[in-house]
Amino acid sequence: MYLKKTVHYLIVLTILVVLVPLSFAADINSSNLTGKWAIGTIEQKCSDTNSEFFTFEPDGTFKARRNSTVEATGFYQVDQGFVSLNFISSIGFFKDIRAELKMYEGTYSQFRVTLLPFNVSDDRFEAFGLLGDQVNKGIAIKCD
């Protein structure tokens, strides 16, 4: 148990130490993050309605949609190259696992994700997402 937690923390620490310089150089800010993005673990297409889309508004709010259904909403903040997302969602909304989670419909939860963007351009970026002790890599493609 302790070994597993230690390994997770070492992975997160290693990623932070390696990616912090990259994320500061990434030059992501609220103005270039504003808009609609196709998000995934592999590169998504803006024309694919099955893609997961995040829309970041200039007022610091966002919505996550899949198949034209809002699955999550929340607030975001960009600070020194990091993007903090404060999600509000019901896990009962996730269509790919909806049958198993039907009992959670109407139950809402709040959780935070920190993104460490790198390889940033005007219409694309990659990022590591940190949620608790989980680390996932994703790709975002600007759709508008």
Biggest sheet character: 8 strands, antiparallel, barrel
Give the mean pLDDT.
81
In which order are the strands of the major sheet placed?
Answer: 1-2-3-4-5-6-7-8
Give the CA-based shape. Answer: globular
Give the topology string: H per helix, E per strand.
HHEEEEEEEE
Distance between the termini: 45 Å
CATH class bucket: Mainly Beta
Number of strands: 8
Q: Classify the beta-strand content into a percent band.
A: over 45%
Helix segment tally? 2
CATH topology: Lipocalin
What class, by secondary structure content? alpha+beta
- Examine the secondary-structure arrangement and name the CATH architecture: Beta Barrel
When the domains are counted, the total is 1
Helix content: 10-25%
Point out poorly predicted stretches: 17-25
Rounded Rg: 16 Å
Give the gist of this structure.
With 144 residues, this protein is an alpha+beta fold. It has two helices and eight strands. It has a single domain (2-142), classed as Lipocalin.
Explain what this protein looks like in three dimensions.
By secondary structure, this protein is an alpha+beta fold. The chain has one domain (2-142): Lipocalin (Beta Barrel). 19% of the residues lie in helices and 46% in strands. The chain contains two helices and eight strands. The chain has helices at 2-25, 30-33; strands at 35-40, 52-56, 61-66, 69-79, 82-89, 109-121, 124-131, 134-142. An eight-stranded antiparallel β-barrel has the order 1-2-3-4-5-6-7-8. The chain is globular, with a radius of gyration of 16 Å.
